[in-house]
Amino acid sequence: MDEQQSLPPHVLIFPLPLQGPVNSMFKLAQLLCFSGLHITLLLTENIHTRLVLHTDISSRFDQFPGFQIKTISDGLQEDHPREGSKFLEVFDSLRSKTKPLFKDMLTSGLLSSGKRRPVSCIIADGVLGFTCDVADEIGLPIFCVRTISPCCLWIFFCLPKLIESGEYPFKDDDLDEPITSVPGAEAFLRRRDLPGFCRSGDLQDSNIQLFKTEGQENSRAYGLILNTFEELDGLILNQMRTVCPNLYPIGPLHANLKNRLTEAKTSLRPSSNSLWAEDRSCIDWLNNQPLKSVIYVSFGSIATMTNEQLMEFWYGLVNSGQRFLWVIRPDSVAGEDWKNKIPADLAEGTKERGYIVGWAPQEEVLGHPAVGGFWTHCGWNSILESVYEGKPMICWPYFLDQQVNSRFVEAVWKLGLDMKDTCDREIVEKMVKDLMVVRKEEFLERANHMSKLAKNCLMEGGSSYSNFEHLVKDIKSLSDKV
Predict the structure, then answer these.
(1) Carries keyword ATP-binding (predicted)?
(2) Rounded to an integer, what distance in angstroms lies between the CA atom of residue 448 and that of residue 427?
(3) Is this structure's pTM higher than 0.70?
(4) Is residue 114 predicted with pLDDT exceeding 80?
(5) Could you tell me if 154 and 224 are in contact, meaning their C-beta atoms sit under 8 angstroms apart?
(6) Disulfide check for 416: which of 54, 135, 153, 393 has CB 3.0–4.6 Å away?
(7) Cis (ω within 30 of 0) for the bond into 252?
(8) Torsion of CA 220, 223, 224, 226, to 10 degrees
């Protein structure tokens, strides 16, 4: 046992089984490997199966003998969609069926060996509250990590206060009514900026029931790891510390990892950990476009639209006269074979100025000098990647934290335009022109300023650099007590 105690701490990382959280947790795993920790990344079998189709996930960790991937069942049938409105069924199944499997995995000795000590610390997505139960039962320290935006997480923390104050459920249909029960956001938050499920007005809504205990659940852990940086989210982080005093803002994670890879002088490169096959032909197309002339359009890995919405967006893009690179996933348009129904004028306009792919290497696209703006669904990873690369945004949020994020992009960070609750070709045309032409210099100046702050926070002595060092120190200290 003494020999095992001399081995590095062994951290088990358990992400929420969705593209964005899994992508972020892979990056966190690599960062912790560089810090000399042993890591077990625990993926649901469904996520692991999808990942191995498009990425060589294990070879990127070959230089880290202390890294391993393990899989666990999410308890659902293989053909369950696990997306959209059905995703809440994943939570129920994880709580009821995965929880005992998780506890057994941690106590059976399955994860340790002669070269790896038993798990000495857990890092789990904070919405997986059962992981805190198991950690308490078996006496392991646990850190929560949230890969959604702090501004949305703070609203989750404030849901009980919103209900108690009478601001929720809404008393009428005016979505522009101010919300005043979220400390730090009183000056700009409206009903329409709350997470989309708040519009149901049903206190028994499964989302309300899931998220209204976030403050209690996340405060059970030793600390809360966040993918953001102080200079971007200080306003909200100061509020969150009243509930979770021990915060570790270590983002932007994707750039933090790139920096560590550069420092280590390794040939290892970051990967998108994508659940979709990337079409790299778009990079060749971008190479032939003028500087900052292209608006990149992507609504992430989950958002879907109707054929009518597709047409409005498409006409708006073509009519704006701007160059565009658009990601339209194979399942982007619900139940429609849109490729066989493209009007001739759209086909011609796209041929002249546009390029469409099924999936793109997004970090590389946003870093490309030809890209001057980003029309996004406002997923948190996408926003941080855009902030880091200094790209202004048009925001068309789809669900969960995205409604809140889009308001912060426009009203707080002044990095772009919020187009939520809108799907009209004339508005699309105007916003694209505003971002790419009319207000281009204004938005680029602000985006460049925030990009510099994002880069500086990751340098030695910067806020995220120091917070990450603090996290590693605390993991080692707590592991020594196990």
Answers:
(1) no
(2) 26
(3) yes
(4) no
(5) no
(6) 393
(7) yes
(8) 180
